[in-house]
Amino acid sequence: MSRLEPGDAAPDFTLTDADGNDVSLESFRGRKVVLYFYPAAMTPGCTKQACDFRDNLSALTGHGFAVLGVSKDTPAKLQRFREHDALTFPLLSDPGLDVHKAYSAYGEKQNYGKTIMGVIRSTFVIDADGKIEKALYNVKATGHVARLLKELGVS
């Protein structure tokens, strides 16, 4: 699977959120979106990353960005994650990994020196017309949001 590049059309999707509602990327047309994929809710790195997005959400929304988090977790687990860490943006469930694969956020990766198949922590910035502005693969959970804010000129 080839990775997405700036200028590519962002693959459309409809996924279920933590409350069981359908959320489609198309419903965000006209707004910029930060779409991020993370391996598993309620794990240390994913919690750090989600809380960093939560803590910077007002700055992002103030610059016209919506934030969406995607994992393979069930809506029930996403709901516990949201409530436990007071997350204030949509968390979407992709248990079949179809959307992960459409964004090349699932595949071979290195884990403790071994090659395995798994979720590749990735972030995409999608413009108001549904085009990829930034495609960031293999990001680190810690410090990623701060670097993204700097790149986007959001303070």
From TrEMBL:
Q: Does the keyword Transcription regulation apply?
A: no
Residue ranges spanning the membrane: these are none
- Which one of the record's GO molecular function terms can you name? thioredoxin-dependent peroxiredoxin activity
Question: Cross-referenced SUPFAM superfamilies, in alphabetical order?
Answer: Thioredoxin-like
- InterPro entries to which the protein is assigned, alphabetical: AhpC/TSA (IPR000866), Peroxiredoxin_AhpC-typ (IPR024706), Peroxiredoxin_BCP/PrxQ (IPR050924), Thioredoxin-like_sf (IPR036249), Thioredoxin_domain (IPR013766)
Segments forming domain Thioredoxin: 4-155
Keywords of this entry: Antioxidant, Disulfide bond, Oxidoreductase, Peroxidase, Redox-active center
What reaction does this catalyse?
A: a hydroperoxide + [thioredoxin]-dithiol = an alcohol + [thioredoxin]-disulfide + H2O
So which residues are the signal peptide here?
none
Q: Which domain of life is it from?
A: Bacteria
EC number(s) on file = 1.11.1.24
How this chain assembles, per its entry, is:
Monomer.
PANTHER family in the record, alphabetically?
AHPC_TSA FAMILY PROTEIN (PTHR42801:SF4), THIOREDOXIN-DEPENDENT PEROXIDE REDUCTASE (PTHR42801)
Family membership = Belongs to the peroxiredoxin family. BCP/PrxQ subfamily.
Q: What does this protein do?
A: Thiol-specific peroxidase that catalyzes the reduction of hydrogen peroxide and organic hydroperoxides to water and alcohols, respectively. Plays a role in cell protection against oxidative stress by detoxifying peroxides and as sensor of hydrogen peroxide-mediated signaling events.
Q: What is this protein called?
A: thioredoxin-dependent peroxiredoxin
* Protein encoded by which gene: bcp
